[in-house]
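pls ignore typos typing on phone
2-acetamido-2-deoxy-beta-D-glucopyranose + seq
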Amino acid sequence: MGRRMRVTPALYLLLLIYTRVYTFIPGVDGPVSQQEALDGGNTTLHCNSSADTSDEQFTLLVWYKDNVPIFSFDTRVEIEWSNEGFNRSGRIRADVVSQPTALTISALTEDDEDLYHCRVDFLNSQTRNIGVNLTITVLPSKPFFLDEVGNKVEDRIGPYHEEDTLVLSCLVIGGRPPPHISWYSGSTLVDASDGASDIPSVKENVLYLPLNRDTPAELYCKASNTDLAPPLEASVHIEIYVSVQNVSIQWVEGVIGHTLRSGRPAVAQCTVHGSYPQPILEWWLDRQHLTKHSNQSWNNLTRTSISYLELIPSVAENGATLACVATNTAMAPSRGSKADVIKLNVTYSPIVEIAKLGDGDLSDVAELDPLHLECEVQANPPVNKFIWYHNDSEIVPGYIWGSNVYSHKLLVEEASRRHSGVYSCAASNNVGETRAEPLTITVYYPPECIGPGISLVKETIKCNVHGLPSPDTYFWHVQPAGLDVQHLTTGSPILPLSQINEPLSGTMKASCEAGNGIASQYEVCERIFSLESLRPPQPNQCDLAFEYGEFQMRCIPVENATYYEISVWRMSTSNSSLYLERRGSIGFGTRQALAQGGVEGAPGSIAPTWLVRGALGVLKSADEAGAAACNRYGCSAPLLLRPTENLLLAAEPPWWHFILEKDVGISLGAVVLVISFVVSTVLVVRLIRRPRGKPPPVIQVVQLDDLTRNYIDTMAG
Ligand SMILES: *[C@@H]1O[C@H](CO)[C@@H](O)[C@H](O)[C@H]1NC(C)=O
Ligand SMILES: *[C@@H]1O[C@H](CO)[C@@H](O)[C@H](O)[C@H]1NC(C)=O
Ligand SMILES: *[C@@H]1O[C@H](CO)[C@@H](O)[C@H](O)[C@H]1NC(C)=O
Ligand SMILES: *[C@@H]1O[C@H](CO)[C@@H](O)[C@H](O)[C@H]1NC(C)=O
Ligand SMILES: *[C@@H]1O[C@H](CO)[C@@H](O)[C@H](O)[C@H]1NC(C)=O
Ligand SMILES: *[C@@H]1O[C@H](CO)[C@@H](O)[C@H](O)[C@H]1NC(C)=O
Ligand SMILES: *[C@@H]1O[C@H](CO)[C@@H](O)[C@H](O)[C@H]1NC(C)=O
Ligand SMILES: *[C@@H]1O[C@H](CO)[C@@H](O)[C@H](O)[C@H]1NC(C)=O
Ligand SMILES: *[C@@H]1O[C@H](CO)[C@@H](O)[C@H](O)[C@H]1NC(C)=O
Ligand SMILES: *[C@@H]1O[C@H](CO)[C@@H](O)[C@H](O)[C@H]1NC(C)=O
Ligand SMILES: *[C@@H]1O[C@H](CO)[C@@H](O)[C@H](O)[C@H]1NC(C)=O
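k done
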């Protein structure tokens, strides 16, 4: 052997390869492994050339394709050889150093599919054979789509609606072995059923896909006939119109614990999910369409639409319904819209108004009637506290208010006049406190006498009562002493005595009872009084004169006298006492005229030019003359005058006349002493008091002293 090898190693090798050709029988000559490679790719065939023992080494390595040598390596000459037909364009590489040895074949074609085996020769050991069954896989074409009517579909398809069924074919041309076609909706395998095609070397898979809102938008068709390469795939985008799935309103601003506050701006956000294409969002507040909202935003990835509404809630909007309506205009109207509604809970400080319950005027109540006041409130949240005010001070339990003063009703069972005043109530909730406009309550009460009840004021009697409202009717019962009762009615508290028909010279019993529309008086006012004070004052400026042949009483009129009475007192000739000889009225005049004649002028003023004059007839020494001023209430005390000596002398009748009246003369002497004393005093006084100027006529004035007056008074009575 050794000798032969030395000849020409290459030649020897060739001979060796070809002479020792024999057919490899898989399984018998050696093991066979399956190996797959892609058309156009490369593959590496491995062959273990390690010896079983360490002292052994291989001498020759040969690769056969279908028993035809394509590569050899001889360790003794270290020569690599390759079949030129197989190693076209230098596509094979060998690695005989590392174990196992490798033979890499590139630019594979379908012709390379075959049974390969390698043969390893050793110095001493037995030859080894290892088989490799190489298959070449040809990838198919990229899949493409055809719709139901056979039109090619590119990129996108639709639009469809929910519950439609999508029918789409995926086709693949070529491929060895024939590929499998699978449909994926998103990442989910939905159809792996292979189908044949009418066209040779074309495979087809028809997909029937029920559509719903969750159907992924991307549909994939994958074709595969090997694990060596990823599947070939194509995708199409399905456009599915879906109705609005859900609508929700949330407050994003201006809410305090889920509630709104009146007047405080709040922002609501309406989020709409699920609709495609973009829905239209509309806002409604009860039946009002709100147009002032933000521009609607749209995210076509999440299919979310958002609209913001700014709202300044008012009290009236508490309880109102806020709706966000999303409409997908691409859908049938019946299923195109969805809405979310929320009820507004608008909180506000109470709105308070005070009202009086029960009959009658809004602000009046009669004493002893109940007084019911109610604090009418409108509030959200409900009122938690009420406070009542009377004349601006807080009403507390007790006193005239009872115990229940902190509720929305204030109840006084029996109103008294102390309950009059200005009422208000305040209500508070956790938003705030409000006080109502005050209400003035007047407690009416029937008339009552003030003090003695009836008073005499000048020529009237007055019924002194108080009541609310002021009395408007007065019933009088007047009864002058000893006379009949007279019933009178007046509209004012004053009853002029002129309305009483009867004489009024003494005392009078009067009662009055007032009415004010509420009730009549409980107790009438009653009084007995004397009318003496209404009599005129005593005349105090009188004199005696002898005129026109007789004595005259002349007086300056006094106020309020309607007539005058003169009286003549004679000195009795028998028992030396004065007796009333006659009495008579004189000088009737109107009150006004008399008033004019008043003498209240300042000293030095011109004296009145007229007088009240009454004829007295004949007066003798010690006779007296009286003058009293009178009106319907009676007469004043008379002013008594006695003629002076001078006056008597002036009136002296002829001497025989004097004798005829002898009895007068007798008593004359007895009084002369007294009179002369008085006269001297009075004269001085009168002279000083009389107005200066024109000297008086023959007049003498004698005024009596008190002692004498008392005497005459008792006589007159
Ligand atoms: C064999 O193919 C692989 C990819 O298929 C490539 O990366 C590699 O370079 C190829 N080797 C040769 C020797 O061509
Ligand atoms: C190659 O063959 C030798 C001898 O039979 C063995 O010991 C070795 O493990 C084999 N190597 C491989 C990679 O199979
Ligand atoms: C195949 O041919 C190329 C160039 O023709 C050569 O470089 C290469 O070594 C050959 N392969 C083997 C295993 O001989
Ligand atoms: C080689 O592979 C092909 C296809 O896979 C098969 O038909 C054939 O029987 C295999 N040959 C051997 C010897 O295993
Ligand atoms: C509305 O629908 C979306 C999906 O479309 C879901 O994520 C969300 O939870 C839903 N919201 C409500 C309130 O049901
Ligand atoms: C809404 O859009 C209109 C026109 O597209 C624009 O004039 C207006 O300013 C926008 N309003 C808001 C609140 O974004
Ligand atoms: C979203 O809208 C843009 C522009 O209108 C469009 O290019 C994009 O394809 C849309 N995306 C989806 C998921 O519909
Ligand atoms: C509104 O909110 C207030 C405060 O939280 C609560 O007391 C009240 O019951 C709410 N009203 C309604 C109608 O929910
Ligand atoms: C309250 O005020 C009214 C007048 O506004 C007054 O007549 C009444 O006496 C007052 N009452 C009290 C208790 O102050
Ligand atoms: C007279 O009567 C009037 C009215 O009654 C009264 O005012 C006046 O005081 C009276 N005069 C005298 C002096 O009594
Ligand atoms: C005195 O006399 C007069 C008659 O002159 C007589 O009327 C009168 O009653 C007498 N008085 C007494 C107290 O006697």
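Residues 41-42, 93, 104, 106 surround 2-acetamido-2-deoxy-beta-D-glucopyranose (ligand 1) (CB under 6 Å). The longest helix spans residues 662-689. more later
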